[in-house]
């Protein structure tokens, strides 16, 4: 029998309070992350990637959020049922998170080493001198050149890429089992983006941690992750190992995302985008939420949301007509 995944999100639905009642931002989301694995979560802006990620550490404003169904099991414990005290212990120490904009998470009046030390002292109760030494080690580990000197800089003295390295240093300071990286390279230019992804890949191997990598860019996910979760309008629409998904995307939305990945050998004119736009959570759509944009839409698609079905051993998809088309092909 396969070992229990490190993180198992099951059938998660998250709603936010609005004037008119409750908006369903994500619905029935299930994602597994195995020990040491990297799972990529991809989808256009507004598809529910961040809502899913923030739910894991319960970082939503509690008063305006409702989780009517689902569970988030981490090392066998349901985080949705955990006390605030237990969650505080897990945050940073067991599960760490980095975001798109490192500046907004860095304190402008503390030096780099002061902020890293603060994290260390908070979670590990480390004396000041030791924390400072460890901070410099961590800056070395994330390959910040001349770390000892850089440690005394304030965040505004660093480039965007270097700031993201500092965020990564803080995130891995307590050797978390799981790192959630929500669009960590979206604000960076392409060369720096590649360097940061490479760094994350090396650290994942060196520290043996699992990574949940969130991106709107399927190219980034393909480079880095072992398996992919494709989200659309708050639902998981397809899920498969990277190679399987690229060999045989089943959902028309996945195929559309793939066509939008620029090919290094191709010309930019080949780059396509999917016509139309993603529906918001307030839009009441009875059937498949992709139906209004789908080239393969059938009458049944507009009647009821398609269930998640197997398209191969480790491959599932929310698109019945095409699954039937591809029948029993293996994943
Ligand atoms: N706090 C909130 N209150 C109301 N709606 C929200 C809130 N956070 C996110 N949403 C909505 O939920 C949907 C998914 O958002 P999000 O997870 O941020 O998308 P992504 O990260 O994939 O771009 C969006 O339509 C967004 O407007
Ligand atoms: Mg987001």
TrEMBL record:
Superkingdom of the source species: Bacteria
A single GO cellular-component term on record: plasma membrane
Record's protein name:
Peptide/nickel transport system ATP-binding protein
Compartments in which it is found:
Cell inner membrane
Q: Which GO terms describe its molecular function?
A: ATP binding; ATP hydrolysis activity
The family classification in the record reads: Belongs to the ABC transporter superfamily.
Membrane disposition? Peripheral membrane protein
The protein's organism comes out as Bradyrhizobium lablabi
Q: What does this protein do?
A: Involved in beta-(1-->2)glucan export. Transmembrane domains (TMD) form a pore in the inner membrane and the ATP-binding domain (NBD) is responsible for energy generation.
Write out the GO biological process terms. Answer: peptide transport; transmembrane transport
């Amino acid at each position: 029998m396969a070992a229990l995944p490190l993180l198992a999100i099951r059938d998660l639905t998250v709603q936010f309070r609005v004037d008119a009642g409750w908006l369903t931002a994500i619905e029935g989301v299930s994602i597994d992350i195995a020990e040491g694995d990297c799972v990529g979560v991809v989808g256009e802006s507004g598809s529910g990637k961040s809502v899913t990620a923030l739910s894991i550490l319960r970082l939503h404003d509690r008063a305006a959020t409702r989780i009517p169904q689902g569970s988030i099991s981490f090392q066998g414990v349901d985080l949705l049922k955990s006390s605030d005290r237990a969650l505080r212990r897990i945050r940073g120490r067991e599960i760490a998170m980095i975001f798109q904009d490192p500046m907004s998470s860095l304190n402008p009046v503390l030096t780099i080493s002061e902020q890293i030390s603060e994290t260390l002292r908070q979670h590990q109760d480390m004396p000041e001198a030791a924390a400072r030494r460890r901070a410099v080690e961590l800056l070395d580990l994330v390959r910040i050149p001349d770390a000892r000197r850089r440690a005394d800089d304030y965040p505004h003295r660093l480039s965007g890429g270097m700031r993201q390295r500092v965020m990564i240093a803080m995130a891995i300071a307590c050797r978390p089992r799981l790192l959630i990286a929500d669009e960590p390279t979206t604000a960076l230019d392409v060369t720096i983006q590649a360097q940061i992804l490479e760094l994350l890949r090396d650290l994942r191997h060196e520290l043996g941690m699992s990574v949940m990598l969130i991106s709107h860019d399927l190219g980034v996910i393909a480079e880095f992750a072992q398996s992919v979760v494709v989200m659309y309008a708050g639902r998981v629409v397809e899920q498969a190992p990277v190679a399987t998904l690229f060999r045989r995307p089943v959902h028309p939305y996945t195929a559309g995302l793939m066509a939008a990945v620029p090919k290094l050998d191709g010309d930019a004119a080949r780059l396509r985008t999917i016509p139309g736009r993603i529906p918001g959570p307030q839009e009441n759509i009875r059937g498949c939420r992709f139906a209004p944009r789908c080239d393969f839409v059938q009458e049944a698609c507009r009647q009821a949301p398609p269930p998640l079905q197997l398209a191969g051993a480790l491959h599932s998809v929310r698109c019945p007509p095409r699954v039937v088309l591809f029948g029993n092909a293996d994943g």
